[in-house]
Write a structure and sequence with these properties.
Blueprint: H1 8-12, H2 22-47, H3 55-78
Helix pairs in contact: 2-3
């Protein structure tokens, strides 16, 4: 006997309620500079995985680390006045 499989999961997997909300998309947009800076930092680390880092590699990593920290600081300063739901008073 073959089991009967429904397509309910395939239909509801892409329902409207599963899409990100506008607030979630806005949060991603605000954090995009941090994400891109982290990608650059990881790229700098990845290039040195199979070899001993040269002075140029070390400078690239330091610059990428500074950019990542600056991006995080900029995002924190932008959201300084924004209250986060569920946070401590």
């Amino acid at each position: 006997m073959n089991p009967i499989v429904t397509v309910q999961d395939a239909v509801t997997a892409f329902a409207d309620f599963m899409e990100p909300t506008d607030a979630e998309l806005d949060a991603i947009e605000r954090e995009m500079p941090v994400i891109l800076a982290d990608v650059d930092l990881l790229d700098a680390y990845i290039t040195t995985l199979d070899r001993t880092p040269s002075e140029l590699d070390n400078r690239r990593i330091r610059r990428a680390r500074r950019r990542a920290l600056a991006a995080r600081l900029a995002v924190l300063n932008q959201t300084d006045g924004v209250s986060v739901p569920g946070g401590a008073a």
